[in-house]
From TrEMBL:
GO terms for biological process: DNA transposition. This is Transposase. Residues 61-88 form a coiled coil. It holds the Pfam family HTH_Tnp_1. GO terms for molecular function: DNA binding; transposase activity. It comes from the Bacteria. Keywords: Coiled coil.
């Protein structure tokens, strides 16, 4: 029977790579201590070093800020639309009651959204 594939957290990976970069232990010793393949640790180290420049990348943070602003504006627009539609529904209910009487709902087919 084959073994299940193991998943490692980002924290676990980064801790091992940082331990490797400190140079106190070699790659094989760290791999054996943590029951992983040396190639896997080598790949994590390469990925870590390749993506190290992202930490200092200001454009990424600016992009996230812009996206949050867009989402906030979109949310405000939706809230405004919901408020407008709620007012229209309330007005229509009031006018229907005035024109057709309090039992106006019974004169129409069932509401499509009521379960």
């Amino acid at each position: 029977m084959s073994q299940k594939r193991r998943h490692f957290t980002a924290k676990f990976k980064s801790d091992l790579v940082l331990e490797l970069l400190k140079g106190e232990k070699d790659l094989h010793a760290i791999a054996i201590e943590n029951s992983i393949q040396p190639n896997l640790l080598r790949n994590w180290k390469k990925e870590f070093l390749d993506k190290a420049s992202v930490v200092f990348d200001d454009s990424r943070e600016e992009h996230i800020r812009e996206k949050l602003d867009e989402e906030r504006k979109e949310k405000e627009a939706y809230a405004k639309k919901v408020g407008q539609l709620t007012m229209q529904v309330d007005w229509l209910k009031k006018k229907s009651t005035e024109l057709l009487g309090p039992d106006y709902e019974s004169k129409f087919s069932p509401k499509p959204f009521d379960d």
